[in-house]
Design brief:
Blueprint (H helix, E strand, L loop, with lengths): L1 H15 L2 H5 L11 H15 L5 H31 L16 H43 L2 H24 L6 H10 L2 H16 L2 H54 L16 H11 L7 H31 L7 H28 L4 H20 L7 H10 L6 H12 L5 H30 L6 H22 L13 H7 L13
Length: about 525
Amino acid sequence: MEESEERSALYDGASSDLKDYASHEAPPLPDQDSPLAIVKKVETRRTCRCWITVEFIVILVAASYGGISTLGGQYIRFRVSSELYGNATFNGSHDSACDQGNSTAFIEGEIQKITSKWTLYLTCSASLPSIFTTLLIGTLSQRYGRRVSILLPCLGFLGECVVKLLVINFELPLGYLFVGSIFCGLCGNLALFMTGCFTYITDITTEKDRMIRIVVVEILIFVGIAAMQICLGYMIHALGFALSLWVPFTALVLSIINAGTPCLLEETITDDKKRDTAEVLKDIVRLFRVNTDNRLYILIAMLAVSILVGIVIQGGIAITVLYGQGQPFCWGPVMIGYFVTISLVIPGIGTVAGAGIFQRLKLSYMWIVQVSTISGLANTLALAFTFVIPSTVLIFASTFLGLFKLLGLPVIRTFLSTVVQKNEHGALFAALGVLDGLSAFLATPIVNGIYYATIDLLSTVVFFVMSALLIIPIIITGVLQCKGLGKVDGRRPLSINTDADDVTEPFLSSDAPNR
């Protein structure tokens, strides 16, 4: 009872007068001599030293997500072609339809329009519910543990996979796909899954090694999706839609087993760290209320950068593929597959390499975000000027200019984890997860809308607009740099809450300094 009252007093004090922020004193440590503390100490030490925790689950879920989404889109296109035009020959063709005559091009265009509408509606039905689920469950993970925010989306993806299996096998109306999409959205979709994984990694790392671990998790998502893109076309050609869908189904079952088994994925929120549910929910409001050392301005600025960069990244590959399918490039499915794979793999390699190099160079968080954004800007500008040199080679070369474009988002997550209190990590990553989902939701209508509205004027206007969107984060980050914020060795807002963990976790060593 006394221990519970002490914890309650600690959080009440932190939220009311912010004395802990100003005093630079670490919160009181749990009783190091109690049997429960000794057991939890050993478990946490083992988890913190483990270099593979959620990574295996991440690559399984990413591959499954990529497989379910891409296969679903191709199946919808197949059904639309069959039901409206009595054929599905366009689905398996290795050639582009844009250079096969006006009649064929017109039919192909109609099929693409209807397929795009179905895809947009299904995406919205999954994205909108996930925004609320991610914010709620991601924040409550500070009370009920991180496993729930990792396991719940896996169950959602499995449910969506089952619905698609039923629709494909029994040739049910396409409207039944909304059942799977809405269920997946209510379970959090990819936004909640990423929130759970990033929060888990933050729990078991210190600031010194946190950035590289978050980068690895972020890149594994792209690697898993890219790997599935390479294999999926061959699987559909050899096995058909139904049998191919059993591959992501199996991967999701394995991910659920790994996420749901305590001995395979240990919980980081132990009994001695749990807080009252009402207090945890207040973290959402408190996250945007506290402004000590300009924390609120930093938080809002970085969230704005995240959503702008996210929109460009989320919409970039899809709109480039659409651009490449038109005149004068006329890409077929094979060329599209190569481009999508390279567009995921090259920035993935650059992100992992850049994280290691920039960390060794002791580059500040803000400078890494600047380099990443400038890399993305070079990528979009190169695409924008392909109207002068209409070359497929130049489009592929632009991918190499965007070598570091994916690095900015994981660095922002790492930086913000040092800005807020440790007990606010659940609310922070829930907010970031919501922004990821919101970026994915906004990217398609914004980018595609601009493309279709300006295609007759100049087909690359959309890339100029994307470049302009990236200039805004460069300006925002530059303002923060001018104020001296974001330096690795500098004074960070509320850094006491993370500095205590930089060298050793207090509950791992009884000799840890009580700052």
